[in-house]
Design goal:
162 residues, three-stranded antiparallel sheet, 4 helices
Amino acid sequence: MTPSTPSRVRVILLSSRGRVLLIRYRNTDPSGVDRPCWTTAGGGMEAGETIADTALREIREETGISAVSLGPVVWYGEDSIRSGDWGVTFKEHFIVAHSKTEDVRKDGWTEHEHQQILDMRWWSIQEIGESCDLIYPIGLHDLLTPILAGEYPTELRIISAP
């Protein structure tokens, strides 16, 4: 069976303090083992949405923050999950967004998010580099360093996702 290919948007949400918001998910692997991981905010694109539309909706739903300014789409990655005779390939665009606040709320979460999200916090680049936790995308520290310096790639950078 050919895997489906849902499009997703991940948001590199940066605060005015130079920190990035990461969300910790349950992340149960296909064998049923729970492997919690941290990743950026984001989710699936709905019919008719642009990358920017999805980013703004996901930020609002997952964090309660609505006053953000969007930057460029800087990375793209694909990740495939297969189990038995089915599979899915996630196509993820990573967009930069800037927030003046670090106050987050979870009152916009769906029931699924309440079940899957374990934590949400702002990280410094140093904390990401020193962490032993599983953080996606792999190599986030190195990917973020130029972004935090305001240096965006001139072309979309292909990365390993999720």
